[in-house]
Design brief:
The complex is a heterodimer. Chain A is of the alpha/beta class. Helix content of chain A is 64%, strand content 6%. Chain A is built from 15 helices and 5 strands. Chain A has a 5-stranded mixed sheet with strand order 2-1-3-4-5, with helices on both faces. Chain A starts with 11 loop residues before the first helix and ends in a 5-residue tail after the last helix. By secondary structure, chain B is of the alpha/beta class. Chain B folds into 2 domains: 222 residues, 3-Layer(aba) Sandwich (Rossmann fold); 63 residues, Alpha-Beta Plaits, CATH 3.30.70. Chain B contains 11 helices and 14 strands. In chain B, 43% of the residues are buried. The C terminus of chain B is likely disordered. The chains are: A alpha/beta, B alpha/beta. At the A-B interface, helix 1 and helix 7 of A face helix 2 of B.
């Protein structure tokens, strides 16, 4: 088509995109689906607050043991005061403690109680020859968890109090900074180097985003295919193709549908993100003031949102061109399913690779798949969120994706140019390939 | 050279798998001409038009307009009324027309103004705000015609523009044809209604099974390809049995008052008149005319131009 006066994309691609966008947004189905999804998303965004409310009902039981019952008593007093602060203005009598500390005769008894579930963990206090305290925590909370961080502060305070009590006169041993060791009670293979709570919420978020990409690529891809097929069915296609080039029609269609999809996306995600961002004030309004130690639940950071946006848009473009080509081959919208099937298998493969890859995020297979264009929108996104990815890897993955989009647009335009004039047959995957290879050969 | 001014369709061939759609079809259309492109269903008219529009590529052969190959011409050179009518079903008429004109590069305000003009000419101004799926077939067709000509293309290709229109609308469309041609636009149309071609088209081409059967000025084709006809009426004799018995004469069409006789080459039409007078008949009508296009078509293609019978005819031909 080189040298053809109409070979540029503009303005026709834009006109077609605008028509597509307006028609899509005006349709009742679009409005209904968007409203429903918006409600679902806001509901989902409120879940963490619900979880927090549930979390508040929960109490953590910690056993405390030391060679001296007196020391045990003082440590329990001080630590539980620190762990269960009374929110300003609240009546101390009505505040339920989150942490219950109780004395255990010895470590062995305490660990038995942990095993049986009566206790969550045991704090072992050892007393040095000078009366200085050291602590060992027997439990499964990670070093960055709120419980451990607050326990460290509280036990330091207990050690200071104990030191000052033992101090008679001015002569005495120098203050010994208490040690605080973590002794996991469960030594199974699942012990993660990071706080399981944080890793868990990251995995959950990654899964949600990967599922979201999968659903939207499939749904919006089908929008494209259906829209092309119905233009064929209503025979308006013949007029279109004599007014614009296949490339203009194709790009316009994909951009128009993509913009409508993005609009729906924003309509769904904006309120939900707002709820997430305003989690703390909302939680305060709905379930009362927050405890000082309550951790924010989901780590939806800006870089993750950017990566998600980039992989969604590029992934959509890649898949949409192929869907458009598929749509151009059928005579009736009902026949699309048949042609779209192989394509959704590819999409599904990428989706499963990402979901199962999350358990072995740094493996070689996952690494390789994160560069393969039809899979990278899923797999690289998962890696970005859960694994260790260098900047050049992301750049390479995105570069390959863009190159693949160019190639798929070119092939799709060939298929489309021939496909839109084919009527009366129910083309299978073979027609698809044949037309891609030799568009002119009827 | 004349070729540098005209639309030249030069030895186009196109196959779909084993089916030959076009076999070295060639003809030319002068600028400002109304050209009838005739053939039975499946003869290759649509394929030819699609190749001219460059939405389909020929296996061999070229199309040039004013010396430039159609593959290098801007899309707006041509307007197209496809045989299978199609508009966006849920889009409003005016919006739709402006959209299509926009694809051909017409600025929105101009497209709006011209679209409203055309709607008024076709006496359908009230349809501007209606959705396409609410229109009657005839109205839909008029909108489709406007969509084909709104960007004022130099060449308009129309596949069956007259089918399904009532006589009033046929007259409106006919007037639009003449007006466009008077402004120097070139119009190519196909139809099965031969009397429309006879009255509108200065030149024609007839194709059958992908091959050009005949072409040229309509008068010339009628004279060359058809046998002359004699329209004869004799007082008190409707049967005219004696005339049909004359050598080289047969009755081709009978109506209430006139019988049309086809005369073989080599037979002098005047001999019929002589025979009539010799019998002492009172001749109320005697006219020597060129064959009707209908007769030429049947003569050359072997079946009438109308859709259904043409399709049956084709089955018979291919079975033979």
């Amino acid at each position: 088509m080189s040298g053809h006066p109409d070979s540029g994309l503009l303005p026709n691609a834009l006109l077609i995109a605008r028509r597509e966008y307006v028609e899509k947004l005006r349709s009742r189905a679009f409005a209904v689906a968007t409203a429903i999804l918006m409600a679902v998303a806001v509901g989902a965004a409120l879940v963490p607050i619900g979880l927090r409310a549930l979390d508040r009902e929960q109490t953590t039981r910690i056993g405390v043991t030391s060679p001296s019952p007196a020391v045990t008593g003082r440590v329990i007093d001080l630590v539980s005061q620190y762990l269960n602060p009374i929110p300003p203005g609240a009546d101390p009598a009505t505040v339920r403690p989150h942490y219950i500390l109780r004395s255990e005769p010895d470590l062995a008894t305490g660990l038995v109680d942990v095993d049986s579930g009566r206790l969550d963990s045991v704090l072992e206090v050892s007393i040095g020859s000078t009366g200085a305290l050291d602590f060992t925590f027997h439990g499964n909370d990670g070093p960055t968890s709120a419980t451990i961080q607050r326990l460290q502060v509280a036990t330091f305070g207990a050690a200071v109090v104990e030191y000052s009590q033992n101090l008679q006169g001015s002569a005495g041993p120098a203050f010994h900074v208490p040690s605080f060791d973590l002794q996991p009670t469960d030594l199974g293979p699942s012990v993660a180097p990071v706080d399981p709570a944080v890793a868990g919420s990251r995995t959950l978020l990654a899964s949600i985003l990967v599922v979201l990409i999968f659903i939207t690529l499939t749904v919006y891809g089908m929008w494209v295919a259906t829209s092309v097929a119905s233009e064929k069915a209503s025979r308006v296609m013949e007029l279109l193709i004599s007014a614009g080039t296949p490339r203009q029609l194709l790009v316009g269609k994909v951009v128009g549908v993509g913009a409508a999809g993005l609009t729906q996306y924003l309509a769904i995600l904006l309120p939900a993100t707002l709820v997430l961002a305003l989690q703390d004030p909302l939680a305060t309004a709905l379930i009362g003031p927050a405890d000082p130690g309550e951790a924010p639940l989901i780590g939806l950071t800006l870089p993750i949102l950017v990566a998600f946006g980039a992989f969604f848009i590029l992934g959509f473009l890649l898949y949409a061109f192929v869907y458009a080509a598929a749509g151009s081959l059928v005579s009736r919208p009902e026949d699309i399913q048949q042609l779209a099937m192989p394509l959704s298998f590819v999409s599904m493969a990428g989706y499963f690779a990402a979901i199962f890859g999350m358990t072995a995020i740094n493996s070689r297979v996952v690494e390789v798949l994160s560069f393969v264009p039809f899979f990278s929108p899923y797999v690289m996104l998962a890696r970005v969120m859960l694994g260790h990815v260098d900047a050049w890897e992301i750049a390479l993955s995105l570069g390959l994706l863009v190159a693949a989009i160019g190639a798929s647009m070119w092939i799709a335009a060939r298929i489309y140019g021939a496909g839109v004039l084919l009527y009366g047959q129910r083309p299978g995957f073979r027609t698809f390939l044949r037309v891609a290879i030799r568009p002119g050969g009827g | 050279m004349l070729d540098r001014m005209t639309l030249v369709i030069d030895r186009l061939s196109k196959r779909y798998g084993d089916v030959v759609a076009l076999d070295e079809v060639g003809f030319s259309v002068a600028p400002g001409e109304i050209f009838g492109f005739l053939g039975a269903n499946g003869a290759g008219k649509t394929t030819t038009m699609r190749i001219v529009l460059d939405i389909l590529r020929a296996d061999s052969g070229t199309v040039t307009w004013r010396g430039r190959p159609s593959t290098e011409l801007p899309r707006r050179t041509f307007g197209y009324l496809p045989e299978e009518r199609g508009l966006y079903p849920r889009m409003r008429v005016l919006e739709q027309l402006v959209f299509f004109a926009g694809l051909y590069g017409v600025p929105q305000p101009d497209a709006r103004r011209d679209a409203l003009d055309w709607l008024e000419r076709f006496r359908v101004s009230d349809l501007a705000g209606r959705r396409a799926d609410e229109l009657s077939k005839g109205n839909q067709q008029k909108i489709q015609f406007i969509a084909a000509v709104l960007h004022d293309p130099e060449v308009v290709l129309m596949d069956e523009p007259f089918t399904g229109l009532d006589p009033v609308n046929v007259a409106l469309l006919r007037a639009a044809f003449l007006e466009l041609a008077a402004r120097g636009r070139t119009l190519i149309f196909s139809t099965h209604q031969m009397e429309v071609v006879e009255s509108l088209a200065a030149s024609i081409a007839i194709i059958d099974h992908g091959r050009l059967v005949t072409g040229g000025s309509t008068r010339e084709v009628r004279r060359r390809a058809g046998r002359p006809v004699v329209r004869l009426a004799v007082e008190g004799d409707v049967e005219l049995g004696w005339a049909v018995d004359l050598p080289g004469v047969r009755a081709s069409r009978r109506s209430a008052d006139v019988t049309e006789l086809t005369v073989s080459p080599g037979t002098d039409p005047q001999s019929i008149l002589h025979a009539a007078l010799a019998r002492g008949a009172v001749v109320t009508c005697f006219e020597i005319a060129d064959a009707s296009l209908e007769d030429v078509f049947i003569e050359l293609v072997g079946r009438p131009a109308t859709g259904a019978s043409a399709a049956t005819g084709r089955t018979v031909v291919s079975a033979a």
